[in-house]
Amino acid sequence: MFTNVDARGLSCPQPVIATKKALDSINEGVIVTIVDNEISKENVIKFATANQCDASCEEKNGAFYIRITKAKTAGLTVSLPTEAVINAPAGKVVYFINQDVLGQGSMDLGAVLMKSFFYTLTEMDELPRSILFVNSSVHLTVTGSPVLELIQNLATRGVTILSCGTCLDYYKIKDKLAVGSVSNMYTIVAEMNAGPVVTL
Length: 200
What we know:
Elements (H helix, E strand, L loop, with lengths): L1 E5 L7 H11 L4 E7 L2 H13 L3 E7 L2 E8 L23 E4 L9 H16 L7 E4 L14 H9 L3 E5 H6 L10 E3 L1 H10 L2 E3 L1
Parallel strand pairs: 1-2, 5-6, 5-9, 6-7, 7-8
Antiparallel strand pairs: 2-4, 3-4
Helix pairs in contact: 1-2, 3-4
């Protein structure tokens, strides 16, 4: 069975969701998802490989043609998020961070508080399941971040670190990512659904 998914012009997470729906609709076979940007290409390939499907990509005329092969045994995990720690203990907190300072008011004070927050987090016995970075908070996960070493400490201890790929692209810092994975809104929402969420 062969299915084409034309996701050109669609923004994150629509290409991943369209790919998921196509995979869900078949027991086995091949789909080709067509996207027109690097972030969508990477997200679709990550989704496919994380769900036990073979994926290859060919670029033609400015578009990426991602060929995904689903075997019969691959159907069990298609609905799972891509980078999430699937076997993490239930109930662990998920931190959703949407800015690079903590709190409202003074930016300088907010930067100090954010550093204090991450330092305190590294000293806690109970670590979060994951930390999700969106909008300007993605500056915290790139080279030069004042809290980079603290976040790396958490990552080495099993905390999933996900940075929004659309946000990294918007700020033109994707190539500077220094900890965790480039993610997409589908995975971010899936992670938020997986445990209690604390928004900073």
